Amino acid sequence: MSISDIKKNAEQKMAKSIDAFKNELAKVRTGRAHPGILDQVQVDYYGSMVPISQVANVTLVDARTIGVSPWEKGLAPKIEKAIRESDLGLNPAAQGDLIRVPMPPLTEERRRELTKVVKNAGEDAKVAVRNLRRDANEQAKKLLKDKEITEDEERRSQDDVQKLTDKVIADIDKLVQAKEAEVMAV
Q: Name one GO cellular component term (predicted).
């Protein structure tokens, strides 16, 4: 393994950490409706639990309402029950074949709680990135110990990994700020 391999590996893993963080942020509910909110809701489909998106079309009816159209008629009550029992605090209403899921407006207190959730998720992402930095630096130290690289190369590698880490952490901070602004917007 060379220094460029170490840097490339760290860069790829940090990019994956940011993607995972973005997915985590997408689950945080804002005042507006978006179909991704129902991604973690599982429904019983012939004995196995599957995400709603695999048994129904999930669309936006308007800015504050999600529409769920089951592919099989018998699934509507099960989907409605799964959404109601999820920890999202939603109250779906069936209208013929369509299940309407209105998004209740968020209270100020709930918005503050959600910003704390966003900040905690951001801190978790930063910890993951710092762990990747540590792993990359340990790999470089191992190469130095095995006399495959010089001390200068090891130092340069650590500096490059630190710059990459700083950039990724700044990106995470920007994502946190944007999501907090989105959550606090009425």
A: cytosol
CB 10 within 8 A of CB 161: yes
CA distance 57 to 106: 25
CA dihedral 76, 79, 80, 84 (to 10 degrees): 170
Q: How would residue 91 be classed by pLDDT, with cut points 50, 70 and 90? A: confident
Q: Is 131 helix (H, G, I), strand (E, B) or coil?
A: helix
pLDDT of residue 32 exceeding 80, the answer is no
Reported as half-sphere exposure (CB side, CA atoms, 13 A), residue 69 has a value of 4
81: CB partners within 8 A, 6+ apart: none
Matching residue, tokens 């899921």? 101
Alpha-helical (H) ranges within 52-107 are 76-85
Q: In this structure, are residues 49 and 42 in contact, taking their beta carbons and an 8 Å threshold?
A: yes
Enumerate the domain spans of the chain.
3-27+107-184, 35-102
Whether residue 52 contacts residue 101, with contact meaning beta carbons closer than 8 Å, is answered with no
Cα four-point dihedral sign 134, 135, 137, 141: positive
Helices 108-145 + 3-27 axis angle, to 10: 170
* Fold of the CATH domain 35-102: Gyrase A; domain 2 (3.30.1360)
